[in-house]
Amino acid sequence: MTHDPKKRHDRVMLAAGALFCVIVGLGIGLIIGFLVDTSSSDSKPARPDKRAEFKRMVSASNIRETLRELTRKPHVAGTPADLETAEALKKKWLANGIDDVYLVPYKVLLQWPPDDENEANRAQIVDPDGTVVFQTALKSDDLGEEDLMQDGIPAPYTAYSATGNVTGDLVYVNYCTQEDIQNLTTNLLPDIDLTNKTFLCRHGGVGRSTKVLNAQNAGAAALLIYSDPEQYTVDTSLGLQYPDGPFMPPTAVQRGSIFTGVGDPLTPGYPSTEWGYRLNEEEAGLPKIPVHPINYGDAANLLRRMTGPQPPEEWRGTLEGVDYQVGPGFRGEDAGRSIRVVVNSYSEQRWAYNVIGFIHGEIEPDRYVIIGNHRDAWGLGAVDPTSGTACIIEISRVLGDMKKNGWRPRRSIVFGSWGAEEFGMIGSVEWTEEYYHLLSSRAVAYLNLDIAVAGNWVFRPSASPHISPVMREAMENVLEPNPSYPGETVFDSFLDKTNISLDVIEESYIIPKIGAGSDYYGFLYGVGVPCLSGFYYFDQEKYPVSFYSLYHTQYETFRLMDEFVDPGFVSHRVVSELFGDMLLNLAESEVIPVNVTHYMNRLLAYYSNGLNVTTYRTQIVDHGISLDGLHKSLVEFYYTTEHFQNKIVPSVDRNDPLAVRALNDKIMMLERAFLDRNGLPGQPNERHTIFATAKSQNVPYDTTFPGIADAIESIDEANPDAGWKEVEKQISILTYIIHGASSILKAGGNWTEVMHGNEI
Asked: I want to staple 294 with a disulfide (CB 3.0 to 4.6 A). Which of 163, 298, 375, 744 is the partner?
């Protein structure tokens, strides 16, 4: 929240120098008073650490009741129920003691399946005369569960699919990766033209939007996607399928968006306000083929009928009675029949609502520590995202009670409930686009609570490198809830259960780097705000499934969470304690608690290991391109971060509020320094030069610098010289970016010094 500007009084001209000095002195006094309590002339009293008090006040039973209430009705983005939840959350936050709460709407393009069952999306096996001999489920089985019988839970669909009615031969393409399609065309079906075939693939390998892109590029007419039990179920000796356990039954369908971008598809890079300029849908890069998700019971029915060669072993899942022949087409009595895919989903521009709440800071109200969670779900959403929503509401209740008892944070705490995340992080991205300049100058950090609890075994953290000590400290401050580990902290448990040895792994790598698949995207990759995230997870060695089994299905019910995932809601309580600890640490610490050398270690790994592992360094050198400048910039960043962390931070005069403010500004600006205002090659809206996801699927994840990697991977063999000029350009840009990051952390005027070529 911004304050009204002071009124200018131009009617009186002050000629007296003495009066001018008084006013200037008064202004400086007001600034210092704004930043620090001046009741003591020697030193200010330390603010009390409220984290232990916060943890004592968190209630698992409160979180349970909140989740029960929030999952009574489905709340898909763009529906009346979604607005109802936004308005209810605003009332709840105000009742909890949040100072101000606002509904922030954006008009965005969304898509839903048809309401008329006669028009429902489907896949069918048809005779040459069009007679239907088999049809996939038009809606999901409610399994006799009352919560699942209500209206509003969408029929199976993928958001942003092209519409259409396509008939042709079916081809099984495993995960629909580029390698899978290459295997088909080279080895399995070398004499078959894949153009106008309908592809059938399983989840895994790459994201669903990438599968669609690969299918389009291969000439497919349509794509069907299912969840194979190999990745989504376990043997009954380990666990049962829903409704008797937490694992996927054959009637479950994973929903999701297949838009390759983020934010509103029609307003890339700019907020989708009512007055905003919009692209036509044809210009928005939306999928061009019909795409439909099916359950694995229906997938088995299709695959059992298919003809064609046997695939390699790694293409075979665990569907009963299925040998995963790749086609094209069917065999036996189904020979000559075709697959028909019908998608009649409809797209509209509708309002999606963010809910934004403020607890204003006492000393630095213009510095924001933000915590957020998306509110929309593909149905009831007991895991994704409503477990996180319930925790944030509990965090707001505890902080509100503390405020009612006289406490107020040093910095402002901002709560965000984001709309339409499931369609591509829309609400959070639009908000960070609209308030880019404000956030880039005032945001300290963003804490993301998407899913809070997907299991009860281990907490899985992630963070921007330099702010990861905040995560570790919180994990060391909170006790592990599993009674099998008495007295252990969440951090101890994390090390034990992930087989991490502090004697082996470098400290910078203990907390994994944050990804790009949730609402931290707009903050980190768009604005350059460091982020933290995390959730409780299951024992993946014991239950070897891909993510949690019922992800994005209709079966994310309150009963799933209450009976199977987190009985007693102890993991929810611990997540709330962890995020409360981090929130208070960042909002209350005089100096923002970071370790900038962690960032330096990541850069050195990308340079020393990543370029070598990928063979990019050899290719660069072989083409006569120098890496000397990049090397020098990294050496400079090494010495600068070491000096900043070990000399400048400890020596700051904490009795000088302006010195502390200047130090914190440097810390805040570090992540911003790694953004390139012109974007990455082929991705103008991807601006993070270190951690953005490379466009090319050939670049290993989290290995090396994405701009250089994409430039190399996109070299056209017909014109390689131009491609290598782009590689040289990207190396130059990265050198400039890293040198600029060093300048942020330097003291005095030596930020203007020329890079030196010292060795590390």
From this structure: 298
